[in-house]
Amino acid sequence: xxxxxxxxxxxxxxxxxxxxxxxxxxxxxxxxxxxxxxxxxxxxxxxxxxxxxxxxxxxxxxxxxxxxxxxxxxxxxxxxxxxxxxxxxxxxxxxxxxxxxxxxxxxxxxxxxxxxxxxxxxxxxxxxxxxxxxxxxxxxxxxxxxxxxxxxxxxxxxxxxxxxxxxxxxxxxxxxxxxxxxxxxxxxxxxxxxxxxxxxxxxxxxxxxxxxxxxxxxxxxxxxxxxxxxxxxxxxxxxxxxxxxxxxxxxxxxxxxxxxxxxxxxxxxxxxxxxxxxxxxxxxxxxxxxxxxxxxxxxxxxxxxxxxxxxxxxxxxxxx
Length: 320
Hints:
By secondary structure, this protein is α/β, with parallel strands linked by helices.
């Protein structure tokens, strides 16, 4: 029986090419050559400028920023790869747009996170690698394999290297408590939880802090920062409860609207986000610091390609 030689090919959409280049370097490959353009009327076009026949194709894209354009770009690239006889197509989705619409909270609403999963499947995507989904159950929206990674160990390593003392990890709401507990365990820190309500979209109210934060160095952990309103309200609540220095970390820095300006004026000491969503270099010289998940995503890609376990990436002792 002849052994089939497999070929890995990485391609990047236009949403976060800087991260794609880092991932390719970690995988010791070059980014593939694909022409992605936008017509005058706004329609997107993609054509691979090299053969992908029989290859395992990995498409790196963040559905953020120009959310709808970047989503369509991913779907079109997947369709083109399948029609060019790729052996498999894996979406390396560094941010899952529409993830907050994962259930019906009011009558006559869509479940857009499920719609996006359906669109990805129909486009020909065979597997999805993603990181810190807004809700873990989004994995169940897919009928194809999903590898759901987390940046929590990367944040733990970052803050542990700072040698902070008397630390407390703070969950911004009850739904994030499990992830905050994991980060606290990785850091050997205490845990506190904030009570958050949302009277309207992009509006939050944080009336209480559950747990002792007085005099402690607090690290607020969330999956994303959008307009910055929730995290700033949370920092204000912690300060009112007597907290010392307050740091914020989130996997996805969306920074919509006037988020950058609001963060610079807020009481937190630093905001640490990952490079899952592109943050302009000019915005990284104040309170905002960006750390990379390229090593984690590259290892996941390599393990999927080699048909090895991805679960080892969740081992606290695993080194990227």
